[in-house]
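User: I'm putting together notes for a lab meeting next week and I want to include a structural view of one of the chains we've been expressing. I don't have a solved structure, so I'd like a prediction I can at least talk through. The sequence is below, exactly as it appears in our construct file.
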Amino acid sequence: MPRLQKNDNFIDKTFTILADIVLKVLPTSKDEKQAFYYYRDGMSAQSEGEYAEALENYYEALQLEEDPFDRSYILYNIGLIYSSNGEHVKALEYYHQALELNYKLPQALNNIAVIYHYQGIKANNQKKISVSKEMFTKAAKYWQQAIYLAPNNYIEAQNWLKTTGREYS
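Assistant: Thanks for the context. Below is the predicted structure for the 169-residue chain, given as structure tokens.
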């Protein structure tokens, strides 16, 4: 049974029906269609906190998906899962891979900044001041890029940049 059919959410069901109709009409290859189904099932599993199942679906989608833009979102979502599980090094790897395919992905830039900021706080609490400064500098760099792409987003990051004297000029 496809993953979304288990979900009783009206919006998810509507999206599934519309997506199925669009896929039947659009001239896409069998692999592209299958990749989309895996991606959709991965998103559904992820939204329900079923991360292992989501990862399986995303990895299957990556095997089939050829479009770099679509692959960037799959990689981004894999990064989200690893980040949620506290596996920040793996998350960073996937966010960077996503950005290599789609440099206009402010949410990936933001999430990288969040990880570096977290590591900066952690280092500061451990009295590792030079490491802390380095992590905060990295966080600032990625937040500046995210804000450049999405100037109306990331208000907390904008405030942090301003209050710490790292504001983007």
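A couple of points you could mention at the meeting. The CA atoms of residues 72 and 98 lie 4 Å apart. The radius of gyration is 18 Å.

User: Perfect, that's what I needed.
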